[in-house]
Amino acid sequence: MNTILRLFVAPLFAAALAVTALAAPVGAQTATDTAMDTATDTDPQLAAEWQHAWDTHKFYDTTPPAPGSGRSRVQTSISITIDAHPQRVFAVYSNLENHIGRAAFLTRVVTHKDWCEGDTRYINLTAIEEIPYEGQIVVSNTHAQQRIHRDELYYETDTWSLPGVVTHQKIVFTKVKGGTKVTEHLTFDADDSLIDFVVTNGVASHQQTQAALKQAIESGRL
User: Fold this and answer.
1) What sign for the dihedral angle of Cα 68, 71, 75, 76?
2) What is the CATH number of domain 43-57+73-219?
3) Cβ neighbours of residue 101 under 8 Å, at least 6 residues apart?
4) How far is CA 67 from CA 11, 63, 103, in A?
5) 37's torsion region: left (phi>0), alpha (psi -120 to 50) or beta?
6) What is the pLDDT of residue 10?
7) Dihedrals φ, ψ of 28, to 5°?
8) What is the pLDDT of residues 133-187, one digit of tens each?
């Protein structure tokens, strides 16, 4: 995402960064640990991390957190209208490479697998974000699966990132007067202590990406 991935995806938020910057666990490293190398993990390592997150955290599971589990869920939707034909908006918007430089901190998208089943395209990917924090760059890996339904003009993305933040997204493209209405249906799962922060910052990040993509599409840059 920008999971990404947020990404395109949902980013690691400031409260979580305090954890990752101190502990630097798998999936989050400081750039100083790698001589400022932006590719802190090789693609095979990222693929292994992705598979571990998929198997262990089951971020594809849309079951709400159980009562008393210490985790909460919040659902919300945001929309924007883009002055362009739906097929064009969909093609640009659903390509997460186009979110680089427009989604907050997103610098790279690594695709692990890309295949089709019926009329649905599946993409397993990791979105890499470089986030400034207290004079360092914290590298955050958000693992995701995107499912693109081109004929129906919508796509879905499930993501997981440290510290246990899960998002489920459904982005729908509808023809309206004046262009295309893009509606993002967003579901955030996180620990009770983080959920409000995750939602506030996650929604703001998605709104920033929406606005940047709108400008790029309407200007003809994308």
Assistant:
1) positive
2) 3.30.530.20
3) none
4) 26, 12, 33
5) beta
6) 38
7) -150, 115
8) 788 888 899 999 999 999 999 999 999 999 999 999 999 999 999 899 999 999 9
The H or E element containing residue 58 is none
Domain ranges, ordered by start, for the chain: 43-57+73-219
106-117 vs 71-82, strand pairing mode: unpaired
Rg (CA), the chain: 17
Per-residue pLDDT tens over the stretch 9-39: 334 444 444 333 323 333 444 333 433 344 4
Output helix, strand, coil percentages for the chain, rounded to the nearest 5: 30, 40, 30
Angle (CA) 102 185 60, round 5°: 90
Q: Which residue has the tokens 């190398």?
A: 37
CA 204 to chain centre: 13
